[in-house]
Amino acid sequence: MARLLLLTAILSALALACAGSAPAPTVPTDAALPGLDLAAELARGEPVVLVWWLPWCESCAHEAPGLALAAKRFAGRLRFFGIVPGGEQDAPQAEVEAFVLRHGIGYPTVRDRTGDFTRSFRVDGTPTILVLDPSGEVRYRGSRAPDWNALVGA
C-alpha cells in the first residue's frame, strides 16, 4: 500500500512538471480580415492584442475604457485590434461606431462579418482578449484585462 501511494505521488509530481513545460498554444497566424493582416502585424515584432467585443455587451463596456488606456500607454510595445464578430443583425455599424466613440477606443476595430476569423481562434463569447507574442504564441487569453506590465516586461 505504501508503494502504491509513493508511486501515485511520483506520477502526480511528474505530471505537474510536464504540464508546466508544455509549449504555449499557437493560433492561426495566417488569419486575416479586411483591415487586419495578422501575419503582417506579428512580423512587426511587437505583441498583438486582439479584443473581441460587441456594442450591447455590458462586460465589454466595462473593460473598454481600461483597454483604450492600455493601448495608449503601451503604444509601440503592444498592437491592439478590436474585433466585432457577426453581421449587421448582430452589431449594427451605427452601434459599433457609437461604442468606439463613447469608450474612447483609439485602436483599429475590424468586423468579422462571417464569424470565420472568430471561430478560428475558438472565441465563443465577449469580451475575449488574446495577447499573441510575435511568434504567434498565446501569452494571455481571458475576459478581463491582463497585467500589462508583466506582459511587456515593464
Give a description of the structure:
The protein is of the alpha/beta class. The chain has a single domain (25-152), classed as Glutaredoxin (3-Layer(aba) Sandwich). The protein is built from six helices and seven strands. The chain has helices at 2-20, 38-43, 58-73, 93-102, 116-120, 148-152; strands at residues 32-33, 36-37, 48-52, 79-85, 109-112, 128-132, 138-142. Strands 5-4-3-6-7 form a five-stranded mixed β-sheet. Strands 1-2 form a two-stranded antiparallel sheet. Helix 3 links the parallel strand 3 (48-52) and strand 4. The protein starts with a helix and ends with a helix. Residues 1-24 have low confidence and may be disordered.
Descriptive key words:
5-stranded mixed beta sheet; Glutaredoxin; 154 residues; two-stranded antiparallel sheet; 6 helices; globular; alpha/beta
Q: Which secondary structure elements does this structure contain, and how are they paired or packed?
A:
Elements: H1 2-20, E1 32-33, E2 36-37, H2 38-43, E3 48-52, H3 58-73, E4 79-85, H4 93-102, E5 109-112, H5 116-120, E6 128-132, E7 138-142, H6 148-152
Parallel strand pairs: 3-4, 4-5
Antiparallel strand pairs: 1-2, 3-6, 6-7
